[in-house]
Amino acid sequence: MKNKVLVVDDEKEIRDLLEIYLLNEGYDVIKAENGIEALNILDREDIQLMILDIMMPGIDGIEVCRKIREKLDIPILMLSAKSEDMDKIQGIMTGADDYMTKPFNPLELTVRVKSLLRRAYYFNNKSKNNKDIITIENLNIDKSKHKVTVGESEISLTSREFDILYLLASNKGRVFSTEEIFEKVWKEQYYQSNNTVMVHISRIREKIENHIDDKIIHTVWGVGYKVEK
Predict the structure, then answer these.
(1) Range with the lowest mean pLDDT among 37-51, 76-90, 147-161?
(2) pLDDT score at 84
(3) Would the pTM of this model clear 0.85, i.e. be above it?
(4) Segments of the chain assigned E as strands
(5) Average pLDDT over residues 103-116
(6) Alpha-carbon distance 114 to 118, whole Å?
(7) Which residues contact 24 (CB under 8 A, 6 or more apart)?
(8) 224 - beta bridge partners?
(9) In this predicted model, what pLDDT tens digit does every residue of 136-163 receive, in sequence order?
(10) Mean pLDDT score, 106-129
(11) Residue 111 neighbours by CB under 8 Å, 6+ apart
């Protein structure tokens, strides 16, 4: 899928010039001539990057950037006829990722666009991958690999043991009853006098505490179990 770039500038010549270069690089381009139009576009379009002029009538680029950062984290490249350092600092402090002064070289701008999109793609994917990894002190629980490690040492857990540990660790502070754990992990209805969960938690503790001194799974007497760190 092509990356969609929103070009916001009150000068038609600049909008059209940027469109030519960006289309040539394979991007989809949407154009807006003011801040209000740009914000409306962002509400209905999936934009991957914005090129935003600072000096515009009505809502200027600084205010537009501020409003965008309240809800979106897309890369923003600011354009301005101003070249003073304080203008650049204000743009960056508001949430812009890069800054170019008019007149600019369109080829340099496309290179910067590529760089910003590449960086955004890297960090977004890194963030998504990290959602599957839970760290408690030096214990790492990797859901995608179904793997638990302490430093370089891997702790060998059965599938059920891993699922119990991940359930508790991904809901830190929440107490799960024995019945809840059984029904979420085994996906079966819990029945009375079933000590299966207790046995599994005892085994998890034994395996983990061979590598870590601190207790990871805590018992809340009369209620259930939790991971609180």
Answers:
(1) 76-90
(2) 64
(3) no
(4) 4-8, 28-32, 49-53, 76-80, 98-101, 133-136, 139-142, 147-150, 153-155, 217-220, 224-227
(5) 93
(6) 6
(7) none
(8) 220
(9) 878 889 888 888 998 778 999 998 999 9
(10) 78
(11) none
Contact criterion met (CB below 8 Å) for 72 and 43 = no
**Amino acid type, 105:** N
Sign of CA dihedral 55, 56, 57, 59: negative
Which structure tokens are listed for 54? 């600072």
Q: What is the gyration radius of the CA atoms in the chain, in angstroms?
A: 26
Q: What are phi and psi of 226, to 5 degrees?
A: -155, 160
List the Cα angle 10/12/14 in 5-degree steps: 90
d(CA 77, CA 205): 51
C-alpha separations of 123 from 114, 117, 119, 130, 138 in Å: 14, 10, 6, 10, 23
The pLDDT value recorded for residue 210 is: 79
Confidence of residue 165 (pLDDT cuts 50, 70, 90): very high
As a whole number of angstroms, the distance between CA 148 and CA 157 comes to 8
Nearest to 58 by CA among 8, 13, 103, 111: 8
